[in-house]
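ok new one. same drill as before - structure tokens go in, u give me an amino acid for every spot. 323 of them this time. try not to just spam alanines like last time pls lmao
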């Protein structure tokens, strides 16, 4: 039927009609809140480029996780800022490192919360790259051993899920074997499978103190023009045992989220990264956009594209608006 018999505006006429017909539903259950765990005590360092976010020592990270839980957010993902960094990032598997301590403390305070840990070397290496450097580049295979050890130490601390973000080939398999050999066959892996070398990570690198000292991450993270390659990354990770597939960043890569959902039917997580958050905050601060509305529209867009889960610095604010 064509116009004038068909009038699509008929179903948009009132807020109640729009509510009844909304095809995509956003709830706090979709959110994972990133938190930055730092060594020390009583620390709550504001992150200048990420308003409302902090580097938190253990008792403060528990407070923020409790607040998130009380808003209906089921999960947090932890990043670590260690006291010592070295060439091989050996503090990544220190059982008393900030992530390991925070996992134990959050699980003790809120046993039902799903505590995810980011598994990567860049926060622990003195050069800021995601693995061991050989001949001026990150060496893939020797890095796998470190990543597996890091994931194991997070699982031993009580993490419910591990999320490797380094983009080394073979890391999902290496982590899966290590976890299984040590009795952690029930810990899922959320793989940052399609992670692009992106300028949108800028604010995060300040927050996590992980700016690479030389070069960039283009020899391991993906190149923006590529979409078929994302599917290859995803299929490889699935064959190695990934349980959830992540796309990162989210907003410039909504097509990748949709393709992965359509082609694999796997659970998909999207990382609404630091730059995506900070741009909205900065424009809202200047009065150029309505920050709350842009936030909700962005999150809805990510969900509509096919994401089941959204890792987002907006989690608490969005949960408040939804609640
Ligand atoms: C670690 C890691 C990064 C992010 C998540 N895990 C930074 C990077 O790859 O440089 C970025 C998250 C964000 O920007 O919010 N490798």
């Amino acid at each position: 039927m064509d116009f004038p018999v068909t009038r699509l505006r008929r179903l948009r006429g009132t807020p109640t009609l729009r509510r009844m017909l909304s095809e995509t539903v956003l709830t706090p259950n979709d959110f994972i809140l990133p938190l930055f765990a730092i060594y020390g005590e009583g620390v709550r360092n504001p992150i200048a480029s990420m308003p409302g976010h902090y580097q938190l020592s253990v008792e403060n990270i528990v407070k923020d996780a409790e607040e998130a839980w009380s808003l209906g957010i089921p999960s947090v993902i932890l990043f670590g800022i260690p006291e010592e960094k070295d060439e091989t990032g050996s503090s990544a598997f220190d059982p008393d490192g900030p992530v390991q301590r925070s996992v134990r403390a959050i699980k003790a305070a809120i046993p039902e919360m799903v505590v995810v840990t980011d598994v990567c070397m860049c926060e622990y290496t003195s050069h800021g790259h995601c693995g061991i450097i050989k001949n001026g580049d990150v060496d893939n295979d020797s890095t796998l051993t470190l990543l597996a050890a890091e994931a194991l130490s997070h699982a031993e601390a009580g993490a419910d899920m591990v999320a490797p973000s380094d983009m080394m080939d073979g890391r999902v398999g290496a982590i899966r074997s290590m976890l299984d050999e040590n009795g952690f066959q029930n810990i899922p892996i959320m793989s940052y499978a399609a992670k692009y070398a992106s300028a949108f990570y800028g604010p995060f690198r300040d927050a996590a103190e992980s700016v690479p000292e030389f070069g960039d991450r283009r020899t391991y993270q993906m190149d923006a023009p590529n979409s078929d390659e994302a599917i290859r990354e995803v299929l490889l990770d699935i064959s190695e045992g990934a349980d959830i597939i992540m796309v990162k960043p989210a907003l410039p890569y909504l097509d990748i989220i949709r393709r992965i959902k359509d082609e694999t039917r796997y659970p998909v997580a999207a990382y609404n990264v630091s730059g995506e958050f900070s741009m909205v905050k900065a424009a809202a601060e200047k009065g150029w956009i309505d920050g709350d509305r842009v936030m909700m529209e962005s999150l809805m867009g990510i969900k509509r594209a096919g994401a089941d889960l959204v890792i987002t610095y907006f989690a608490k604010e969005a949960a408040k608006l939804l609640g």
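The chain has eleven helices and twelve strands. and btw Residues 118, 120, 122, 130, 165, 201, 204-205, 217, 273-274 surround PBG (CB under 6 Å).
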